[in-house]
Amino acid sequence: MNTVLVVDDTPSQLELVSKYLRDSGYSVIIASDAKDGLNKALEYKPDLVITDVVMPGMSGFELCRSLKKNPDTEKLPIIICSSKNQELDRLWALKQGADAYVTKPFTREQLIRAVKSVVA
After folding, report:
1. Four-CA torsion 73, 11, 84, 77, nearest 10 degrees
2. 5-55 confidence digits (pLDDT tens)
3. Could you tell me the CA-to-CA distances from 41 to 4, 88, 89 in Å, in that order?
4. What domains can you pick out in the chain, each with its CATH number?
5. Which of 4, 59, 88, 118 maximizes the CB count within 10 A of its CB?
C-alpha cells in the first residue's frame, strides 16, 4: 500500500482528499501547514506528497522546492493541488519540481488519476 502525505491548511480539504485516497486503498498522513509537511515527509518517508499552494508561513511551492533540494526526498513525487488555475501557475509548479498539478475543485477520479500517474 502506498502512503500519501497530504498538506493543506483547510480542514475540509484535508478531509476530502484523505477520504478519496483512503477509499482508493492508500494510507494517509496529514499535515496542516507546509513546515509540518516538510517535517513529516522527512520523518515518515511517504511515497507521495499532495500539497496546497496558498498556506500561511511557507507555500506549497516552497515546500516542493525544499523537498526536491533535500537528497533524502529529492525523488519523492509531488502533486500540487490548488485553486490557482492559470497555465502560468501550472508551469511554475512544474518548474519548482512538482510532478503533477490538479486544480480545485476536482473529482475523486481526477485526483486518483494524478496519483496513479506519479506513483509506480
Report:
1. 20
2. 999 999 999 999 999 999 999 999 999 999 999 999 999 999 999 999 999
3. 10, 27, 24
4. 3-118 (3.40.50.2300)
5. 4
CA distance 93 to 83: 13
CA distance 65 to 97: 7
What does DSSP say about strands 27-31 and 78-82: parallel, antiparallel, or unpaired? unpaired
In whole angstroms, give the CA distance from residue 27 to residue 85: 28
Residue 52 to residue 34: CA distance in whole angstroms:
9
Q: What is the DSSP letter of 9?
A: S
Digit-coded pLDDT (tens) for 41-67: 999 999 999 999 999 999 999 999 999
